Amino acid sequence: MMQRFFFLVLLISSIHAVKADFVADSLASKWKRDFNTGINLNQSSFSDNWKGGGTNTFAIGWFLNHSAKVINNNWRLNSDLNLQVGFLQNRSQSLRKNVDRIFYEFKAGYRISPKWDFYGSTNFSSQFFQGFEYGKKNTKGIPVDSLVSNIFAPAYLTSSMGFEYHPDKSFYTRIGVGSLRQTFVFDERISRAGLFGLEKPGDNIRNQFVFQYLMNVEKDIFQNINMKARYSALVDYFRMGYANGIVHRLDANFTMKVNKYVSTNLQAVLFKDYDQDPNWQYSQILSMGVLYRLAN
Predict the structure, then answer these.
(1) Whole-prediction pTM value?
(2) Which residues of 130-167 are buried (b: 16+ CB within 10 A; e: fewer)?
(3) How many Cβ atoms from other residues are within 10 Å of residue 6's Cβ?
(4) How does DSSP classify residue 153?
(5) Residue 160 pairs with which residues in a beta bridge?
(6) How far is CA 189 from its chain centroid?
(7) H or E segment to which residue 136 belongs
(8) pLDDT tens-digit profile of 66-102?
(9) Which DSSP state fits 138?
(10) 174 pLDDT exceeds 70?
(11) Distance CA 180, CA 103 (A)
């Protein structure tokens, strides 16, 4: 356990040290930053004698995105932070969350040709609040809410090295031939249940040596409509050839700007990880809200 913790601290420290060297080497270039945050609201209400059918609902969500880039003759540096949280309540149910995400990634790419980089990256993902599976029944047949996730339960840290291909500004793909994926489950209630691929109940950390493939697209498809799509696949080297050895994730986001401060957003996630569930998982959210943005 202590050896794994020491390795994790050493890895993070090394990445920050390399990042500092890269920034020093890129003093001639400025970081291009893009920051946006906002609140999304959705509400509906009906009178008690409304014959059209329906139930009172209220939903609120908050998001924060920050990206920073440096591109010069030698380096492509990229830092991305994405935070999201949202809650939904209707008349017949208690308050429930409908989105919850913590994601950060830093990548440094060294140019080896006009379209190819050798890169190193690390990304972290988790959530803010507890997650429940609703409607399950106990041994007596009584519906109960079952705790299935929490902050740092799970959390994923993936460090990768390989090659990145940039044919144009709107698209890139990565081939991570050497990648370490670490799964952390620090809620004892969840770790004792043996969820998220832990080797045995009660474990807190799982290490996997994986091959990473990633594809990213970001472009304006129509006037005032922006599309972002990111697909990643992680292949466990020790389970190659088996369906349960691959983790798939597709994130797609479409943003339509109504004006400088108001936007409509459609977000969809398609996900498959046999260590969580043998079937595909998906989520979809359509929202409209107030947006605040700063960019240089």
Answers:
(1) 0.85
(2) bbbeeeeeeeeeeeeeeebbbbebbbbbbbbebebebe
(3) 10
(4) B
(5) 121, 179
(6) 24
(7) strand 131-137
(8) 999 999 989 999 999 999 999 999 877 878 998 999 9
(9) -
(10) yes
(11) 17
Q: Which of 57, 51, 44 is nearest to 94 (CA)?
A: 57
pLDDT above 70: percentage of residues in the chain? 88
Q: Which of 204, 184, 266, 269 is nearest to 232 (CA)?
A: 269
DSSP 276: T
Tell me which residue of 289, 275, 278, 295 sits closest to 63, measured CA to CA.
289
**For residue 51, what pLDDT is reported?**
73
Using alpha carbons only, give the angle 50, 42, 129 rounded to the nearest 5 degrees: 120
Residue 281: both structure tokens together: 């998982």
Token pair for residue 122? 């690390």
Q: CA-based diameter of the chain, in Å?
A: 69
| Region of residue 202 (phi > 0: left; psi between -120 and 50: alpha; otherwise: beta) | left
Q: Which tokens in the block code for residue 288?
A: 């409209």
**Residue 231 to residue 128: CA distance in whole angstroms:** 23
Q: What angle do CA 126, 128, 131 make, to 5 degrees?
A: 85
